[in-house]
Amino acid sequence: MIFLSILLVLTAVYAMLVLFFFVKNKSVSPSGKIQKATIIVAARNEESVIDNCLRSLSEQNYPENLLEILVVDDNSTDKTGEIIQQWTTQDSRIISLKTPEKRKYRAKKAPLDFAIRQAKGDIILITDADCTQKPNWAQTMVKSFREDTVALSGLAAIKRGEKAVQIFQRLDFLLLMVANRGMADANYGLAGCGMNLGFRKDAFFAVGGFEKIKNMLGGDDTVLLQEMQKITGKKIHFAHSQETFVKTESQPTWSELFRQRLRWAVDGLHQVRQNPMFFVLLLVLAGAHFFGILLPVYLAMGFKFFWGFFAIWAMKIFADIGIFWLSKIWFEEPVSLKEFVVWWFINPIYYTITTVLSPLGNKVRWK
Asked: pTM for the whole thing?
């Protein structure tokens, strides 16, 4: 079976990739200097979560004259704008902005671009309205910039939950975070996460901001950072310190989760031209998880190709255990047996659906 052979190769590469992450494992302590920084939060209809986000940002341990917090209300129809205004009276560093009605870019890029062009900081830190940060998040992120760092990605861990959709999201995102850090530690920084990232403001203008990707729905994190890396010759690094780790909310339903991931899939499809190496990495990560759809085929064939199926399942299980062992070591995010089993059996169904629907990603609304 050709399909079985392809899957066997993808799973083997996935297993070797996990082993590669273990070999390249290293720890880098923040040793840079404090610089003038701007934190940006783009929010649309986030009244249920933005108060917690702004509370954690107001508690940042950072020299007051070197930090500003720009919070952009992206034409919310709920009480998001009112909550932002309330916080501006409690913390002078928090500045309320509103996305102009005449939008230059699609989705989240519009409020981000509007804020970045008004930012006074040399380092731009971006997080989402449903995220909470530790008090030393901003200063540790900034100190994690090295001389050869153009952009910095940090861990965004989804809060633990009991529902299957919450369990799956948390583990799936931990896998992506481990892959992100593993590649960055090997000097192949490929991605960023809009929930927790930073970059040099001059690099944003050096690549022309979002102009090259203005027609994309996404692209405001990974694609932007890759362009910065290509133009400046500097690297995308990953922040190792636990002080930089942020927590975020899970999507409440499967439909919301698929809508979110289809938006992300737009970035993945763009990688075919933008960064073929990253596209191959995504192909390996996704392809290795298709094993589950072979189970009914295997049973229908009367247990033919036993050793091929066995090899795929064995490599897949050991590689997955390795991934979540690294999430415990690197991020202090342990995974229980129950969570692992739930994630493991949902995975092939999830990847099959997202792969089939991925061409529709550019038509999905942001919020």
From this structure: 0.87
